[in-house]
Design a protein that fits this description.
Layout: H1 2-9, E1 12-15, E2 18-21, H2 24-40, H3 44-60, E3 63-66, H4 69-77, E4 84-88, H5 93-107, E5 113-117, H6 118-123, H7 128-142, E6 146-156, H8 159-164, H9 166-182, E7 187-191, H10 203-224, E8 232-236, H11 247-260, E9 268-271, H12 294-308, E10 313-315, H13 328-331, E11 336-339, H14 341-349, H15 355-368, H16 379-386, H17 395-399, H18 403-423, H19 430-436
Parallel strand pairs: 3-6, 4-5, 4-11, 5-6, 6-7, 7-8, 8-9, 9-10, 10-11
Antiparallel strand pairs: 1-2
Helix pairs in contact: 1-2, 2-3, 2-7, 3-7, 5-7, 5-18, 9-10, 10-11, 11-12
């Protein structure tokens, strides 16, 4: 580390907590080593300071954490014909983000979101400030300039926790929101759809616990916003994997939300249309075919846009769909689609990943996740359902995989991103992003002595 910081001293200075850049090109060349230190330094305080240093450097170099709110307001008035990919990167986050930014620069893409969910923050061991630092380090390394949309996905209230102690669960989510906004996540999806009570007689009463909590948390988010930034907030009306949503549920939720909170509300709404997170795995390890109700997506997107001025409906659990399904999202005017497990599958299933390393991860899962094994599950089903948890504790081993292993995996990912960006029609979207989103740099301080 001393070597990296000594070199960095020649191109960056810190005075009274403020970063000044002397040689951007030299910083770009040091980023691989700097972000490695920022993630793996054993000293927790130093690690946090290095992560903040990376974020401040990125902002100086033009990669600025931003809210997608104003683009979504434009989508609410005039749908631009594309669906924004929101990508959860669970492992090999730096390498994967570099591939995404490289593709974005090649194809003039601006409408894309990097996100991480409440559950993923835990099992991938990527706290919000680390996730922001790693994504922005990749942007700097590739030379990407412009708004970078980083999102807290599924900031979800867990039903059983909430029913046994509502305030405890709400306060946990508020703590997570505060941490995320401090880490410059200016896009947050509140998922209180878990609280919907289908035993109630009317749609409004079914949705009431959902919209009341979402309104309370949105008000809390608004109280934490830095000057000049309106955080884009997402709501959710149907738990993913449950029964399909309807336009009537959307109206019940949004009308109730607006009665509960008079300030700026949500910019989009997640709905259930037949998918499940991660897909449904069959006993032989293959995925069951999913049938998405695209008519529902279109109807809900239309209602969200025309009646409430939202950007549209959001589709979760889509990355394991067949490639030929993705073009349908822009055709149904879906505003955002969430993608996660498909990228993880490419990493695990790549022929380039050494079998010995995969076996090491699976041995870890067999031991650590034994209690999660359901009765009658085959090994294939068990490993498929738990392997997302193979990234956190073993993060350094993934990161340390040799270049000749990672390169072909990244090529497979690059091909997948190329297909997704093309089918979702975000190629060329940098122009509308630049017109609608004006990045606001929020200056944060870095310890003066971090460079030694």
């Amino acid at each position: 580390m001393a070597d990296v910081l000594a070199k960095l001293k020649g191109c960056v200075s810190i005075t009274n907590g403020k970063v000044q850049l002397k040689d951007g090109a030299a910083v770009r060349g040091l980023m691989d080593d700097l972000i490695y230190e920022a993630v793996f330094n054993p000293d927790e305080e130093k690690k946090k300071s290095l992560q903040r240093l990376v974020i401040e450097i990125a902002k100086h170099m033009g990669a600025v954490p931003s809210s997608i709110q104003s683009l979504y307001e434009e989508m609410g008035k005039n749908y631009p014909g594309f669906t924004v990919p929101a990508m959860n990167i669970r492992g090999l986050t730096y390498d994967t983000s570099r591939v995404i930014f490289k593709k974005a620069m090649e194809k003039n893409i601006g409408a894309m979101i990097f996100e991480i969910a409440r559950s993923e923050i835990g099992y991938t061991k990527q706290k919000p400030v680390e996730y922001t630092a790693v994504v922005l380090a990749a942007a700097v390394r590739e030379g990407f300039v412009g708004p970078v949309f980083i999102q807290g996905d599924h900031f979800q209230l867990i039903r059983k926790n909430y029913l046994s102690g509502p305030d405890l669960e709400k306060n946990y989510i508020k703590g997570l929101i505060k941490e995320a906004i401090e880490a410059e996540f200016y896009n947050i999806d509140i998922d209180s759809s878990t609280l919907v009570d289908l035993d109630k007689p009317t749609l409004k009463e079914q949705q009431r616990p959902n919209f009341e909590i979402a309104a309370e948390l949105t008000e809390y988010i608004r109280s934490l916003e830095p000057q000049g930034i309106t955080v884009s907030v997402g709501g959710e009306i149907g738990e993913i994997g449950g029964k399909n949503s309807t336009p009537e549920e959307l109206r019940a939720y949004l009308d109730g939300f607006r009665e509960s909170y008079k300030g700026k509300g949500v910019s989009k709404l997640s709905v259930q249309t037949g998918t499940a997170h991660g897909g449904v795995v069959l006993p032989d390890g293959t995925l069951a075919k999913v049938k998405i109700d695209f008519d529902t997506l279109r109807q809900i997107s239309d209602a969200a846009r025309k009646e409430y001025g939202l950007s549209g409906a959001v589709q979760h659990g889509a990355s394991t769909l067949p490639d030929e399904a993705f073009h349908t999202f822009p055709e149904t005017t879906t505003s955002e689609v969430h993608l996660a497990t498909g990228f993880q599958n490419i990493m695990y299933d790549s022929k380039a990943l050494p079998a010995s390393f995969r076996d090491e991860v699976y041995a870890y899962l067999k031991q650590e996740c034994a209690k999660e094994r359901k009765e009658g599950q085959t090994d294939e089903q068990f490993f498929y359902s738990t392997r997302k948890k193979g990234f956190g504790t073993l993060k350094k081993k993934w990161w340390d995989l040799p270049a000749n292993v990672k390169a072909p995996i990244m090529k497979e990912l690059e091909d997948k991103f190329d297909l997704l960006f093309r089918e979702l029609r975000v190629i060329g979207s940098k122009d509308i992003v630049n017109k609608t989103v004006k990045p606001v740099v929020v200056d944060k301080s870095v310890p003066d002595n971090i460079l030694g």
